[in-house]
Input
Amino acid sequence: MGKGTITVARLKKLLVFEDLTLNVVENRTEFLDGYVIERLQFQLSDGTPVRGFLTRPSKASVRPGPAIVYAHAHGGRYDIGASELIDGRQALLDAPGPMLAREGYVTLCIDMPTFGERADVTEDAAAKVALWHGKTLFGRMVSEQAAALSWLATRPEVDPARIGATGISMGATLAYFLAAVDPRVKAAAHLCCYADFAALVRTGAHNRHGHYLTVPGLLKETSTGEIAGLVAPRPQLICVGVDDPLTPPEAVDIAFAETEAAYLKAGALSALVFLPEAGVGHQETPAMRRAVQSFFQGYL
Output
């Protein structure tokens, strides 16, 4: 269980959060049926090249509209990365980018370290290097997502006060951690990766998760439920499959009790939406898709 005293500043310190920026070096635009894809090449402020994809409505709006930072999943598919936005993956119903664009959202997804065009370095090697240098791979990922948010907020089509975050699996964890440390995320919706870390260790389920998530000392100071609770009073949608081995019910119940307590304390219990689905494993379902659509329509 968490200690109940975690702050955004302390969480950033545990993650070894970095202040990064993204700059575009190449943009190839494709106009498709009802939406637009921008194939982007970025450079981070430390010189790291990063691939990204942006989807947006084909019809320009008169005024800036809502946007979403989409964090891609893991699933052992290091070859996918940011292309999940436009091509989808097995755990999803279909590619989320076109769907979100047709509903009016500008959505950005970038390759995380060791994925997509950055898969020339393995996850375990990157995690070791980060730890040896007093950093964390997950902290680097969250930092890069924040840089993606900063860049997305500068787009002329985007209202910076209406930016959400979402993702499935590893992308879910990134979405709620990003929302926890960055108040610019106005609403967060995440699927299939929300569970109390300490409970995962007790049951042995922690080893189903990747090396990227190793943050030294995290469990001495806080917990999943408290970290997600830092999003309060901003809206948050949590979707889990009851039969998902990565998020066993005991671990989900512990986490949700803590997150719920944070929203209750903030007087924002109505902004916390919880959707557990019986008979469902580690995958998006039609009910989850509808919940995400309704959630963002209501809060962005």
The chain has a mean pLDDT of 95. Residues 8-299 form a domain with the Rossmann fold fold (CATH 3.40.50.1820). Residues 69 and 165 are 5 Å apart (CA to CA). The first strand starts at residue 22 and ends at 31.
